Hints:
The structure holds three protein chains of three kinds. By secondary structure, chain A is α+β, with helices and mostly antiparallel strands.
Amino acid sequence: MTDQTLNVVGQAVPRRDGLGHVTGKTVFVDDLQFPDMLHLKMVRSPVHHGRIKGIDFSDAEKVPGFVRALTYKDVPKNIYTILCLIGVGPDEEPVLAEDRVLYKGEQIAAIVAETEEAAMEAVARVRLDLEELPAVFDVEEALKPGAPILKPWGTNYFIYEGHHCRRIRLGDVAKGFAEADVIVEGCYQPAPVEHAPLETTACIAKPEPDGRYTVYTNTQALFFTLDNTALILQIPFNKLHFVGGTVGGGFGGKVDVIVEPIATLAAMKTGRPVKFKFTREEEMHVSSTRSGWRMYFKDGVKKDGRIIARQVTTYADAGAYNRHTPYAVTKHAANVAGPYAIPNVAIDVYCVYTNRQPGSAMRGFGVNSGAFGWEVQMDKIAEAVGMDPWEIRFINAYRNGDLRPYQKVVQDATLIEVMKAAAGLAGHQLPDRLLAMNSWDREAPLADRKES
Amino acid sequence: MPSKILTFTLNGRQVEVIVKPLMTLQTLLREKLGYTATKSGCRQGGCGSCTVLVNGEPMLSCILPAEDVEGQVVTTLEGITPRDGLHPLQQAFFENYAIQCGYCTPGMLMITKALLDRNPHPTRAEIVDALSGNLCRCTGYEPIIQAVDDAARRIEP
Amino acid sequence: MARLRGTGIAAVNYPTGMNLGGDPTQALIHSTTTGTFVITLSSSDLGQGLKTVLAQIGAEALGVPFENVLIDTADSDTGPHCMGTFASRTTHRAGNAIIMAAQEARKVMLEVAADELEARPEDLETDGKGNIFVKGSPQRSINIVNVALAAHFKYGKTISGRGIYMKPKSEVDPETGKMDPDSTQAHACTVAEVEVDTETGQVTVLSIKSAYEVGRAVNPRLVEGQIRGGSVMGMAQALMETTAPYYPAPDHAPGSFSEYVLPGPADVPEIKSVVLEYPSTTGPYGVKGVGEMTANSPIPAIVNAIYHACGVRITELPVTPEKVLRGLEAQKKK
């Protein structure tokens, strides 16, 4: 569908940054250097769950090039506030661990040195006195009585306004199951995965003569990161000058504000520029992943293929800390029933804590997992009622005017249209009955589905 | 261990520098000499973003000791970029949208140069084979494969 | 022992915008006296090309050539606030903010041009090539550089504009989940073809064919880039990737690209796509967004294709040869 009145929108113009990329002249954070720049490396927990009894820096301090160590005592407000900035609380992750660690790789102390090698050597010589505690790794085990409790408020789940999960309730699923001809159940579990951008997370914090700090960063969210950093350092927001905008791959992996606050603190304490770049190993072992999501589906289906009741229980494995998972749980809850018009829906999504590297945003946050669950389940339903996988989707696809499980009326529906186009592209001939459908009105026999 | 004086040819010019033992060629190029086109994706020899040419052969500069290029000829992306305009390789990548974030691009261009220098008319299979040590997370590779094919025809029609 | 082929489908929606809204973005536009229109933002380009598409939207809304629009982004001292690049929000939010700013700037530009051409602003047209002319009398025209100079030096006017787009934050009912989480939905359907080797359990993806409906493709080549990149990322998530190979146990976590399996150019299947445009009511020129969703439908399409090929329904990702072989074994026992 081309619009004759548009001149530029819709044109395949060349990339603005293309010339910089093909000549290698595009500047990434890691390409920057400043005189007297220091390097920051982290002392990280070697255990999945532990109590910190002491840290001994005496051998580390003797490494030539060692400049200083930072612990939680140096951090003015030692708490990440990323969720509060998007209106979700509470915050519970320390910038540097205080008396406990909740995942292997959690940051305990920062070492700042003249060279990267000196910083790494000093980190290796820091001696940690840790008492290892029992750890829990499975989302359902974490919710059982007797599991080690990971959160200060006494549970292993995020509390949604008094509920232990995010809830969606539309209609009456029990009634729907009773009226169904077939019940179809399924459990779906995608594993956690890594963003693996070619460029790792990095920043350089540089003191300026006027008392401000310039932070060069590859964050995906400039002001979000600036605000968080200011809150942690307890300085006015306008003391910080954040520069970025060129990122060597993000995919959601560069929104956790994980390097800027500590690097800026180190710049404040030393009066010198400080660079903190994740190694590839840190990017894999420590930086946030896409969470594993465990989804239990139970559907009530009529012989004619209509799904009349859908119940989904999901356990999101947030790992050791919130990061953005409580936000994604809400997004998952809104979307996990799929782009289908189902009159009775009950969804419970838990944000569960376990002793693993935290999960956070990744491409399709909350919906990527749901799509896997709802679309494999769809084929299972097709088989249960003896229907073709295309037909089952056409019949159940939402149209404009249908009600979403979160009680918003559907607008901009085009699921039928993409299915027709995909079938055409794949050389699959759909029956006329399906080709006659569209997203703007239903066939008469299905008109009564608008009741809910 | 003491530092050494290293002499080699970089992008057509003689260079003399002091290097610490076990300093990698990548660190030498990027941090000491300021040639930052060569990227640093993993420093484990796993992604190819650090690819440079040593005597025309593609090498992973992140695991190559700088001392090993004593007396050798090193070429980086800066060395194949002309003063005005673009090398046909670069033009092909640009026009085929074989770039997104740009971080793998220098490595891809260098490995492509090495391929086309020794095999000016590669088949698709030969292109795929040559690129197989270079990771890209953004493009899905196909535009890069097509860019290499296009570049081959531009350089030697 | 055989190589069995199968086809699988998956159909998905993807919502645009930070969930529940409350994620504003601002844009500022000013015309320099050199005929350049600078759009100042604080948005981050991750490689998807926002520095290009936002310039396209700005050029369209101003009525000037693409080459005359400059994107100046991501300096917190000079750029107005942007929530960030995530949730497939940037083209939608920043695009809308840019259109609003462009409308203000264009109004002043046309007023100045009108005075210079002794016409009324409503009688003027921009040709998209750098000229403003009187409708019906194209010889009465003025170049945008001259308009910029006249505005600044002759009339003392600023050709500039301010824009913001915000979807108000929605509450969520704790009992029912009633909420307004998104601005619109994009859609996709993928058909995947696979081959399963029943001796080794190896799955090869032969093709990924998808239809995407994105509201408006501002730059079709960049949309295609997202589809291709996402198809391969989806295939990788389906067949190769995991940070916990024995999930939920944390053992053997990969720490390098030798251990964390990612596809190379030899693994890429045939990827074909078609893009539909049904402009959304809320997006700039109807844009919905496409950046995130492109891995979502390939994954279940591949898993459904495996079931079609050999009767093994994998429900835990990634699909590994071991899982396929155990599934085939279990079938034999029945």
